[in-house]
Each structure stands twice: as structure tokens, then as C-alpha cells.
Amino acid sequence: MTEAHVSCDVLVVGGGPAGLTAAQVACESGAKTILLDDNPAFGGQIWRGAKHFRFDNKVLDLISDQTAAQLGTTDEPARLRKMPGWRVVAAPRPGVATAESLSETNSIHFQKLILATGARERFLPFPGWTLPNVMGAGGLQAMVKSGLPIAGKRVVIAGTGPLLLAVAEYLKQCRADVRLIAEQASGSSLFRFGLSLTSHPAKLFQAAMLKARLLTVPYLTDCWVTRAEGKDTLERVCLRQESKSWQLECDYLATGFHLIPNTELAELMGCAIENGCVKVDEDQQTSVPNVYCAGEPTGIGGVEKSVVEGRIAGLAAAGLAQEARKYHAVWRHCARFAGRLNETFRLREELKALSTDETFVCRCEDVTLAQLRECSTWRAAKLHRRCGMGPCQGRICGPAVEFLFGWKPESVRPPVFPARVESLTQADVEEKSS
Amino acid sequence: MSKSFDAVIAGAGIVGTACALELAKAGLCVAVVEPHVVGGGATAAGMGHVVVMDDSEAQFALTHYSQQLWQQLAEELPAFGESEQRGTIWVAADEEEMLEVRRKQAYYNARGVTAEILDAHALAEAEPNLRPGLPGGLFVPGDSVVYPPCVAAHLMRRAQDHGAVLMPGRSVTAIADNGVRLSDGTNVPMGLFVNAAGSWSPELDPGIGVKKRKGHLLITDRYPGFVHHQLVELGYLKSAHSMTSESVAFNAQPRSTGQVLIGSSRQFGAEGAEVEAHMLRRMLLRACEYMPGLARLRTVRTWTGFRAATPDKLPLIGPSPGRENRYLATGHEGLGITTSLGTAKLLADQILKRTPSIPFAPYLPSRSMEHDAHA
Amino acid sequence: MPMPETVSLRINGKELSVAPGTTVAAAILIAGHSAFRRSVAGTPRGPLCGMGICFECRVTVNGEPHARSCQIECMPGMEVRTGD
Ligand SMILES: Cc1cc2nc3c(=O)[nH]c(=O)nc-3n(C[C@H](O)[C@H](O)[C@H](O)COP(=O)(O)OP(=O)(O)OC[C@H]3O[C@@H](n4cnc5c(N)ncnc54)[C@H](O)[C@@H]3O)c2cc1C
Ligand SMILES: Cc1cc2nc3c(=O)[nH]c(=O)nc-3n(C[C@H](O)[C@H](O)[C@H](O)COP(=O)(O)OP(=O)(O)OC[C@H]3O[C@@H](n4cnc5c(N)ncnc54)[C@H](O)[C@@H]3O)c2cc1C
Ligand code: FES
């Protein structure tokens, strides 16, 4: 059994834009810092697999190319220790996190903790959604970034949120045959959203929309996939827009319904959650002293928000909260954008009616919609039907069930991800003095 | 005022639902009050090992009787009950425990329970993932494994088929001679009251000597074939009997899903339901001592539950002392899944004045509650 | 140290060469398998989230079951088995 421990002033969990920035700032401010991420490489969802990260924003000067490249690739400053391929799975006592890699377990002792655990896609069930080659929008993008050739493949992108456009653009660049982008949100709400962006420095979304248009991919609003079909793998999707319905042959369906903050680790640490997001003060400190949170877990808001919050959290954790205050104005701007995002991409009621009795809602345990209808709470669905009892621990079915039935999943317990038994036997847990 | 019932039961755990079915089958008009989910209390937390035990003659009698009732029930249980007759292996760690193996076998065989001694070789063959060098164990093939919350739900549905009524989302807050008051303000008139509120039962019948005893459990991802039988270390007896505040024992159970359920810990005085890292650690280290390969399996989840412990380790089944028309069906500690079915029979026998299949005197709440010699 | 140009591994016994940095999930798709595993009810499944959360991409890697292939980079000589 492996038993090791390392210690630091600041531990940053998650190496996306928020975590990279936080780690950089904290170690530049003199703190001995550890940055870990469960992926084999840093970058988070957006910068994943990039040779070096480019961040194009003159207004904010948030993170320089050089910084990002340094963090993501070669020489690390002496005060920064990088641990890619490590995942925090438990928090046995205040000031200690248990992390595991593919083969080892490590206890990390810290003074301050910055949670930058990002977001995941929300998935909604519909007939055929469990067929191979039906993937998340970000999921297919990640697959391509990690080596899947997509050139010439027929792809339908469907669901909701700005991510659909970013993914379309990326896949187009990789010479995929993107046949359609189906956005369930209404055209009018998208129009309002687009207008609101002109007052915002983040033109990312607009730019992507423009590009998608330039690249002549059909972009339909008020449109969604009603079912996916195929024998053992995806062959075609059925679509609907108003009274019209039709089929489209494709190799991949990339479908996601906006993002869900990854709040589980924060919950395990005892941080207060409000409206599904980690509650923080203006220094990005959570309700638990010395635990900070930055990026998507505090509210879905895109990369700028993540970077600003990472910067504030990194400075505050390194004892420079005063300096961090100068970023508050920028932060408020980003937060407004976040609010509008979530309004624009609200899910329409019709999506609740897509699944049939036989559609699996919980993919780990194959629990059908009909079985869930017999239950009256999340706990009943879990105890009597095994919904959410599988290895994803309810991360996929939880948000779907919440949308369909309004049930909220229960509290988080260790391990926060499936972990080896040995990781829960690390030596330095608090022995109760009795 | 709502409709009147012959019997109102507080608690839809496995004990309350089993009692509801038994009384409803006998023709009583029954209501079951449950604030949360059917089978969502200790019943959802427990291991679901249906096991014959021999700490005392009374414990043997109730577990043995109950096991026979489980065998009858198994035939009608839906797949969701995950009932499987896996058998238990009591694992001996040393020669001293092998003596206990022999004693236990003689005891079981003398009372008609099949039990086979496994030597070191046979044990290793039966469970290749146990650590090498263990001297042997006792195999009891009649024991089984169930998934308790679904069994409770099944028992409740069957009771409803016989006219019982489930009153969910409410708890019993007060009990008078002729009715109970619920948390939503309703008064339910009734003939008699059964307290089957598990570790919460002292809230309704103060002074009955039931204490909360916390336990931790862990379940892994699916590893079919890693464990074949329900495994319990014989040292378990030391843990279960110890009245000190904390103890752990090796307990591993194969689920029909291929998952491995690992237990268990015992704590007095721990009121919060949170998973405690230090107890979990001790419990897992113990388990890994017996089965080193467990260390590499992936944990999907950990949780805790509260056993309703009595000083003499026997449940309370019968009239609540000094309280007219009120009965107790609680105090089942770590055996309430097993003994729920026997409990329901014995309670109904008393209420309906039927002749019981086994004597109910040892479980009467009015018995004197001295510590027995085992402690 | 110069990076090798390709990494060779075996998927269900068949040799495959991929670019360094390719994940096992991508390699399995390249090898032409879209079904990585069978679900509890026996239906075929492949990757969904691509980020280590859904557990749909589980395969056996070097004898270890339940490995999330989207989180593991291909290594020379790796043995991958799908369909469990
Ligand atoms: C699937 C997906 C694809 C996206 N693609 C795009 C895109 O193409 N264009 C775009 O503009 N925006 C995209 N976004 C949005 C973009 O990710 C965010 O705007 C921004 O990257 C958020 O940065 P972050 O640092 O807050 O989180 P993330 O970038 O999500 O980084 C969080 C990191 O923490 C890791 N992590 C989480 N929990 C743990 C743990 N317990 N232990 C160790 N590590 C952990 C995660 O694996 C992840 O690498 C995408 C989002 C998602 C979910
Ligand atoms: C870790 C652990 C492992 C175990 N392993 C096993 C095993 O392998 N084999 C075995 O046989 N036993 C085992 N047990 C014991 C077994 O789980 C319990 O003895 C059994 O579940 C008790 O059932 P119950 O119905 O009495 O209690 P519970 O299931 O706790 O039911 C009591 C119900 O009463 C309700 N309630 C509470 N207050 C009120 C009120 N005021 N009004 C109305 N309702 C109320 C609660 O909501 C609850 O649903 C284990 C227990 C634990 C904790
Ligand atoms: S694709 Fe979801 S965990 Fe790998």
C-alpha cells in the first residue's frame, strides 16, 4: 500500500483557466503551490491538448501566453509543483486532501485550498441517447483533441448553450462535416443575448457565432433531437423544429445541454452551496475559512470569469487580498454575462416529454423512466431502483432527474470520485481523542 | 379526525413493514406512518445478511426461526430484492479461533443447522482472495443475502394488498390511549400502537434502554467473482460484544451485482451521520488484513447507519412496559434484517393471542435488562 | 529526449500505432470499435463525457478492469480489452 504525503501553502485543484491562473498567481506571490488536475495534461476543458495556450484579451491582460505555456508544458518555477493525472478523492480532515493517480495515492497537506474544479455538461435523456457515438458536445471535442480523427465524419451538434458553437467551430477546423447545429433555445432569446454582448468585452461567443455562420453550417434555433437511431451504434438522428420533423444520417451526435458546476468536492469540504453553485465572498473565499473557489463552480460564466476569479483567489490565498480587489470591477462584468447566459439557454418544457417508458435515465444502472415514475423522491429512486448508485455517483443522471422530476440529489460523501479502497486508508487522518 | 385503525405502526423500516404485513394478513386494519422513504432508515444502511447466530439461546432461536421464514419469502421476492443464498463463512484467524469454529459447528449441528468445517486448504479454495495462511473457517450454507430497502418496499406493498395504509411524509409526534398525533397535526384514532421506529424508538417510548450504535459501510464497483460467500471474521464476536465506544470487524459480502460490500464498525456515542475518516480507515485496514486484494478495488460509495442497541443484545418485542395498548418492535441492533420476519410473527402472536412457534418471553420488553455473561 | 513518432499498443489482441498523447478512448475508436462495453442490461455503450465523469468508456487496461479510457494516454505495449 502506498503511503506518502507532500505539503504546500496553497493547493489548487483543477488545472483549467481558473486553476492555472490561480496557481500561477499564488506561486508568483511567494506561496509554495501545488497544482493538480485529473487529466493527463493541464488546460481544462477549453485549453486541453493545446500545445501552448493562447489567451486573446488585451483588455484584461489576464494571463500571458508565456505564463500559460510555462504552466502547461516545460520548466516549472521552483515554488510550483505540478501533478497532472491526479484526482482529489477525499478530504479526511481540514488541511488534508487525498489524491490518487492511476497507481498511487498521496496525502496533500495545505494551508489554503483553491477549488477550480470546473464544470461538466448537462445531459438529457431521449430515446437512443445511450447508443455508441452519441457523445457530449464537449465530449466529442475532447475525444478529437485527444486523438480521434474527425475529418470527413458527418456530425450533428444539438442541445443548448454557447458550447455548441465553440465545438462546431473546432470540429470544422478539424475538417469534420458538421451537418447541423440544433439549438433548443428560441431565436428571440438568442437575439436578445447577442445584443447584450455588444456591451461586453468577451466577444468569444459572438465571434464563434459569426464564424459558424461564415462556415455555412446550418444553425437552427427552436430545434432539437427527438431520438437517435442505429443498430449497435448511431446511424441517424430524428429532429424537430416547430411542426416540422425530419431525419439526418450521421456518424456522431454531439449533444449537451449547457453546463453544470462541479460542486461535489466543495460540498464534501462543507462549503455552502447556493442555487447549485459554491457560495463565495469577494475574495473568492467559501463559507469554510481558507477554502477558496474559482471558475465555473461559483457559476457558469465562461473563460474570462474563470480567469479573473482564479486571479483573485490566487492573490487572496497568498495573502494579497487587497491587491485582488482591483479585479472586482472586471469580475462584476463577467458575472453579469453569466447571469444572461443561464437565462438565455433555459431548457424548454418539451424536452421533458422526449423519453419513453423504456428510455434509460440512469445509464450506470440502466434505470428506465417508467421505473423512476414509481418513485417520489431522489432517495426513493436511489434505494428502490438503484438510480444514481453506479460509478458516476449521479453526476450524469442527477441533473437529468432534477430537470425531469425536480428531485435534488442527496449530500456528498467520500470518496467524491470512485477511489481505490487503499486511498481511504491513508495514515494521517485525525484520530478521535476519546 | 381520520378513519380509525386497529393498529398504527410508527416506522416503515423492515421491522415496521414486516409487522404491518403480518397484522394485515390476520385481518387487522393497519396504518404505517413513515416520515421518509419506506426502508430508508437503518434498513437502507444495513448489509442485508440473513444469518443464524448463537450468542445466546434466545438469539439462536429468533434468528433460526426467522431464517426459515426468509426461505419462504425468497420464493415470492421480486428480482429487486436481490435475494441470494450465498452461505456464510466464519473466518478463523488463528488456532484459538479454530476452537471456536469447532464449538460453533457442534452447536449448530446439534440444533439442525448445517455447518461444515473448512480447513486451511478448503478455505483458500472457497475464497482465493483471502490472505494465505488462514487456518480455516466454518461454512454455514443456509445463510443468505438480501437487499433490504426493496424487501421492505415489497412487504409494504403486500401489506397494502391486505388493506394496510401507508401514511408517508409524516411522523408520529404523540400517542394517547385512543389515537396518535402526526407531525402534520392529524389525529389518527386507533386501537393499539406499535413503535417500530428503530434507533428513534426511544423518542416515542422514553426509557426503553435503546441506544444508537453507529456503523460504517463501503461498497465497491462491480468485480464479479472476487468474493463468493458472505465472509465474517470470528473476531466479530469480540467486536459486537465489546461495550467500548469503538470497534471494527472484517465483513465482506458479495452482492448479486458483483459489487463487494465491506463492513463494519460499531460506535456508541456518535450522533452525527457523517462518514468519519478515522473509523472508515480502521475498518478498511481490518478488511485488507483479511483480504489484501480489496485495497485495489474501487469504492463507489461509503455511508453510515444506526443500529438500535439494547443492553442484553436482544430485541424488544411485545407490550411497552406500563403503557396500555402500546407495543414495541425495536432494539434489533445488527440483526434486524434477519430477525424482522420472526419479530413480526411474535408480535402478531401476542396481539392476536396465537400460539407462537418459539417462546417469546426472552424478547419481552418487561424482562430485566441485565448485561449477560458474554460482555 | 525526442518524442517517439508513434506509440504501439494492442487492442483486443490487435496491434495499433497512434500518435503520442492519444488517449486510449480515441485509440479504441480509431481501431473501429464504437462499443466499449456492455451496460448492466447488456446494451452497447461508448464514451459520453470525454472528461472522466460518466464512466461509460470503461475498458480493461493491462488487466485492470474499470479503467476510464478517456483519461489514460496510450503507452507502448499497453494491452487494452473492450467488451467487458
Ligand atoms: C466539456 C466542456 C467543453 C468546453 N469547451 C469549450 C470550448 O470549446 N470553448 C469555450 O469557450 N469554452 C468551452 N467550455 C467552457 C470552458 O470550459 C469554461 O469557460 C472554462 O474553461 C472554465 O475554466 P475552469 O478553470 O473554471 O474549469 P475547467 O476548464 O473545467 O477546469 C477544471 C479542471 O479541474 C479538473 N478537476 C475537477 N475535479 C477535480 C478533482 N477532484 N481533482 C483533480 N482535478 C479535478 C477537471 O478535470 C478540469 O480539468 C467547455 C466546457 C466543458 C465542460
Ligand atoms: C452498518 C450496519 C450493518 C448492518 N448489517 C446487518 C446485517 O447484515 N444483517 C442484519 O440482519 N441486520 C443488519 N443491520 C441491522 C439492521 O439494518 C437493522 O436492525 C434493521 O434495519 C432495523 O430495522 P427497523 O425497521 O427497526 O429500523 P429502521 O430501518 O431504522 O426503520 C425505522 C423507521 O422509523 C422511522 N421513524 C423514525 N421516527 C419516527 C416517528 N416518530 N414516527 C414514525 N416513523 C418514524 C424512520 O424514518 C425509519 O424509516 C445492520 C445495521 C447497520 C447500521
Ligand atoms: S467518456 Fe465519460 S468517463 Fe470517459
Question: What do you see in this structure?
Answer:
The complex is a heterotrimer of chains A (434), B (375) and C (84). Chain A is an alpha/beta fold and 434 residues long. Chain A has three domains: 5-120 and 260-342, FAD/NAD(P)-binding domain; 123-257, FAD/NAD(P)-binding domain (3-Layer(bba) Sandwich); 355-405, no CATH class. Chain A has helices at residues 17-28, 44-47, 65-72, 137-145, 163-173, 187-197, 204-214, 264-268, 302-317, 321-324, 328-344, 369-373, 378-385, 397-405; strands at 5-13, 33-37, 80-84, 87-93, 96-100, 105-115, 119-121, 134-135, 154-160, 177-183, 219-220, 223-229, 236-241, 244-249, 252-257, 259-261, 273-274, 277-278, 291-293, 360-362, 367-368, 419-420. In chain A, strands 1, 2, 3, 4, 5, 6 and 19 form a seven-stranded mixed sheet that branches. Chain A has a five-stranded parallel sheet with strand order 8-15-9-10-11, covered by helices on one side. In chain A, strands 12-13-14 form a three-stranded antiparallel sheet, with no helix packed on it. In chain A, helix 1 (17-28) links the parallel strand 1 and strand 2. In chain A, helix 6 (187-197) runs antiparallel to helix 11 (328-344) and helix 9 packs antiparallel against helix 11. The longest helix of chain A is centred in the C-terminal third of the chain and has 17 residues, at 328-344. Chain A is globular and about 60 Å long. Residues 51-75 and 430-434 of chain A have low confidence and may be disordered. Chain B is of the alpha/beta class and 375 residues long. Chain B has two domains: 5-46 and 148-209 and 312-374, FAD/NAD(P)-binding domain (3-Layer(bba) Sandwich); 85-143 and 211-309, 2-Layer Sandwich (D-Amino Acid Oxidase, Chain A, domain 2). In chain B, strands 1, 2, 8, 9, 10, 11, 17 and 18 form an eight-stranded mixed sheet that branches. In chain B, helix 1 runs parallel beside helix 6 (148-161), helix 1 runs parallel beside helix 10 (336-352) and helix 3 crosses helix 10. The longest helix of chain B is centred in the N-terminal third of the chain and has 18 residues, at 57-74. Chain B is globular, with a radius of gyration of 20 Å. Chain C has 84 residues and is mostly beta strands. Chain C has one domain: Ubiquitin-like (UB roll). Chain C has one helix and seven strands, in the order ββαβββββ. Chain C is globular and about 40 Å long. The mean pLDDT of chain C is 94. The chains are: A alpha/beta (434), B alpha/beta (375), C mainly beta (84). Chains in contact: A-B, A-C, B-C. Bound molecules: flavin-adenine dinucleotide (2 copies) and FE2/S2 (inorganic) cluster. FE2/S2 (inorganic) cluster (FES) binds at residues 47-50, 52-57, 68, 70 of chain C.
